[in-house]
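Dataset card, provenance and construction

Sequences and ligand SMILES were collected as paired inputs. For each pair, a complete structure of the chain with the small molecule in place was predicted and serialized as structure tokens. The example below shows a pair involving nicotinamide-adenine-dinucleotide. Curators did not alter the output after generation; any descriptive sentences attached to a record were derived from the structure itself.
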Amino acid sequence: MSVMERFSLDGDVAIVTGAAQGLGKHMAGALAEMGADVAIVDVQGEKATTTARELDGETDVIAVETDVTDEASVEEMVERVTERLGPIDVLVNNAGIVENSPAEETSIESWRRVLSVNLDGPFLCAKHVGTQMLRRETGKIINIASMSGIDVNVPQKQASYNTTKAGLAMLTESLAVEWADRGVRVNAIAPGYMRTELVDDVLEANPDMEEEWLENTPLGRLGRPEELRELVVYLASDASSYMTGSTIVLDGGYTSR
Ligand SMILES: NC(=O)c1ccc[n+]([C@@H]2O[C@H](COP(=O)([O-])OP(=O)(O)OC[C@H]3O[C@@H](n4cnc5c(N)ncnc54)[C@H](O)[C@@H]3O)[C@@H](O)[C@H]2O)c1
């Protein structure tokens, strides 16, 4: 098989959570461009519908309003995607939130909110999509972790976020080992600072922060969301057939300093 064929997603069905905007939207577009039908799964129903319309083209792109923290909502989403597009080949667990506050001032409600979206969400989606993949003995799961799960990036204080992203890398390894002999590969991507709405919100609250970020980033700039596209296609396709349990860092050199 040629290299091009190994990267192809022709006829595959992919779910990308949190894809109404930001990194998820770019990754969903990349999977569609490589031939997959894609479900835009997001708690922002209307925005997900607009994004799905925008990306709908050669392949089918649909929107499914879902709260990834709610198991019943996830189960219903898996049923709807399967009914409308067919059995699921690729799951990208991308939905995530960040709440910045010094640890000693962080409420338990805030702590639990972040854990719930960033850890419960990927677990529930992997569990219910994974059940179907294990039955078919084929599938790829890609978790969007963060460099914050590897290095404590400064100056913002975000212990809950950092903890969830480290946990997500370990969930990736655990599922990879559990499911390796049943056709399901599980990998993660750990991005550095990518210019999305999530990052814009953090910078709006702390305008001086960007300078410190750039000083600590060897490539000297923030990442562009579209710079994640080729990596997600690699992990979603047969091109990565010998890779499972890995977390690939894409951070402009931040964690290499
Ligand atoms: N932007 C960065 O610099 C950066 C760096 C490292 C990791 N990440 C990770 O990448 C992922 C995407 O980040 P982004 O910058 O595109 O963020 P974003 O805020 O632009 O998008 C996140 C999406 O997730 C959705 N979402 C939130 N809670 C949800 C829920 N309960 N159920 C379903 N959907 C929900 C939101 O509606 C939104 O559309 C996150 O997991 C984030 O932690 C981002």
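Derived descriptions for this record:
The first strand starts at residue 13 and ends at 17.
The two ends are 39 Å apart (CA to CA).
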